Amino acid sequence: MVGRLKRLYESWEENPDIGFVLMKGAGRAFCSGGDVIALYQLLNEGKFEDFKNFFETLYQFVYLQGTFVKPHVAILDGITMGCGAGISLQGMYRVVTDKTVFSNPETQMGFHPDAGASFYLSHLPGYLGEYLALTGEKLNGVEMIACGLATHYTLNGRLPLVEERVGKLITDDPSIIETSLAQYGDLVSLDRESVLRKIETIDKCFSHDTIEEIIDALENEAASSYDVWCRKAVEKLKEASPLSLKVTLQSIREGRFQSLDQCLVREYRITLNGISKKVSNDFCEGIRARLVDKDFAPKWDPPSLADVSKDMVDCYFSPFDELEPELQLPTALREPYI
């Protein structure tokens, strides 16, 4: 699918008869992310090159979309998770609905938020990106609007009207597309229980330099305020792969100061170094526990945060040797509009 998207977008960009692109899901979900069970099977069968080709193509497509010269509209109705978010959030307009559910649950699977996630999460207000990346917690459509992940909100029932209106446009002018999307927009306000109303607590706890300090801060906050949310956040962190947590925190922190292409190159390194099993087999173990055997009892390696050394984390960020090429992106020819 990713390969086909990449070829289509390249051809559409060069086609003068196409003014803009609209992307939507084919069913109840927009996109629930990569087929990780298929990836798990590729690794178990020793098909490393096929695994590598998937991520190379995926990240190249994300860069293509993030630098696409024509306006782009993504209708994120339903589940939008993992790289399902990555293949849509880099575009110009992101329409969400009352059915939208967004998350980056990768640390729960022994992986890291990728497909540009270290770019868009690290650029969210305060330390919200760290919270979402480390816990894998969900946001709804209203919350995506509030934090800037989405640009337009409309009720699911109005989507046929939106698609009909936009589908009749013959233009490459972003302002005309923007006006058409806004015509069917709805005014929204955050729910009283929304996590975004806890942004001060998130900043207080997730601004620390290490996962251990973040957990300590959350536990202290829970003890002093009796806040159930803090306890749930701690539980999520303790369920995740300790190694993935430390790798993810560093990835998000580096993303704050990097461009999209730099983030994708780093994510590609983390992905390939991670599944090389030089340090850990957490990716395969996480998929096994959550999606294959479904015992929800992963045996993480290393088993605790204390056992994760700096050298282990650094290994994930290391440049490849001369036999393994880095991710190639056409940065000299393309420029992100962000």
TrEMBL record:
Pathway: Amino-acid degradation; L-valine degradation
One GO MF term attached to the UniProt entry: 3-hydroxyisobutyryl-CoA hydrolase activity
UniProt keyword Acyltransferase present: no
Domain of life: Eukaryota
Family: Belongs to the enoyl-CoA hydratase/isomerase family.
EC number annotated for this UniProt entry: 3.1.2.4
GO biological processes: L-valine catabolic process
NCBIfam families: PRK05617.1
Record flagged with keyword Iron: no
Residues forming coiled coils: none
Job of this protein: Hydrolyzes 3-hydroxyisobutyryl-CoA (HIBYL-CoA), a saline catabolite. Has high activity toward isobutyryl-CoA. Could be an isobutyryl-CoA dehydrogenase that functions in valine catabolism.
Protein name (database record): 3-hydroxyisobutyryl-CoA hydrolase
Keywords tagged on the record: Hydrolase
InterPro entries membership: ClpP/crotonase-like_dom_sf, ECH_dom, HIBYL-CoA-H
Domain Enoyl-CoA hydratase/isomerase: 1-317
Catalytic activity: 3-hydroxy-2-methylpropanoyl-CoA + H2O = 3-hydroxy-2-methylpropanoate + CoA + H(+)
